[in-house]
C-alpha cells in the first residue's frame, strides 16, 4: 500500500534517481563509515547508501515508515532510531559521524542548531534543504541573505552549496526549490569565542533589529564595546560584520561581564522569511 505523505512531518519524498545518485556521489561513503541518515522516508537515499556501506543508521519519526524499514532490512545492515530528530542525542553515536538527509523544511533551522552543538563529533554533513535557507547559510557580509543563521553556522562549519533540486523531483512536490549543501566542521584551530553563550547572545541581539545601527541595537551594552579597537563603526548594521568581528564583539562584552549568562533567543523557524 502506498504511503501517504504526512504534512505534519513535512514529508516530500525524493523520486528522481539522478538527484539521488548526485547526493551519493557527493557523500562518497566508504564501507565502514558511520553514516546517519535523517528522515529515510521511502528509502530513495537509504538503498543506494546501503549499497556502499556495511551498515547504516537512520532516524525516522514516522512509525509506519520505521516499521516498513524493519521489515525490509536486518538489524545487522540497518539500525533504526524511531524518534523526533530534535530529541535525539547524537553524542551516543560516537565520533566521525557522516550525517545525511532530506531534512523536513519546517524544522531545518532548529535542527541545524541542534547539530551544531555536536559538531566536534561530526566528519561532514550533506543535506537537502530549501534553497532559500542554504542561500542564507552561505551568504557573506553585506548580502541581503546574511543573518544570524549565516554567522552562527559559518563560525562552526565550512559550508558549500552543491546543486539545486527542482520541485518536480519530489512526491508530493514542494512549493519551493530545494538544494544540496555540504557542511564540514571547522577544526580546533578555528577562531573561537571565549564564551559560546556570549557569542550566541550577541549575534541574536544584533540581528534582532537588523536595520538599526549597532549602537542602538546593543543599547546598554554599547558603552562597553571598544569600537575602534575592534575595527567596527558604531553606526554599522549587523549585516556588515564578519564572523570574526562578531566573535571580537562577543569577547569584549564577555570580558566586560555584560553577556555570557542567562539564555538566548530560540532559532526562528524556516517558515519565517527572516532568521534575524
Automatic annotation (TrEMBL):
Query: What GO cellular component entries does it have?
Result: cytosol
Q: Name one GO molecular function term.
A: RNA binding
Protein's UniProt keywords contain Cytoplasm: yes
Query: Cellular location of this protein?
Result: Cytoplasm
InterPro entries named among the record's database cross-references: KsgA/Erm (IPR001737), rRNA_Ade_diMease-like_C (IPR023165), rRNA_Ade_Mease_Trfase_CS (IPR020596), rRNA_Ade_methylase_Trfase_N (IPR020598), rRNA_adenine_dimethylase (IPR011530), SAM-dependent_MTases_sf (IPR029063)
Chain positions recorded as S-adenosyl-L-methionine binding sites = 12, 14, 39, 60, 84, 102
UniProt-listed CDD domains: AdoMet_MTases
Q: Per the database record, which ranges form the Ribosomal RNA adenine methylase transferase N-terminal domain?
A: 19-187
Catalyses which reaction(s): adenosine(1518)/adenosine(1519) in 16S rRNA + 4 S-adenosyl-L-methionine = N(6)-dimethyladenosine(1518)/N(6)-dimethyladenosine(1519) in 16S rRNA + 4 S-adenosyl-L-homocysteine + 4 H(+)
In terms of PROSITE patterns, this protein maps to: RRNA_A_DIMETH, SAM_RNA_A_N6_MT
Q: Which UniProt keywords apply?
A: Cytoplasm, Methyltransferase, RNA-binding, rRNA processing, S-adenosyl-L-methionine, Transferase
**Any Pfam family hit:** RrnaAD
Entry EC number(s): 2.1.1.182
Q: Which family does it belong to?
A: Belongs to the class I-like SAM-binding methyltransferase superfamily. rRNA adenine N(6)-methyltransferase family. RsmA subfamily.
Give a short account of what the protein does: Specifically dimethylates two adjacent adenosines (A1518 and A1519) in the loop of a conserved hairpin near the 3'-end of 16S rRNA in the 30S particle. May play a critical role in biogenesis of 30S subunits.
Q: What is this protein called?
A: Ribosomal RNA small subunit methyltransferase A
Source organism per entry reads: Pigmentiphaga aceris
Q: Which gene carries the instructions for this protein?
A: rsmA
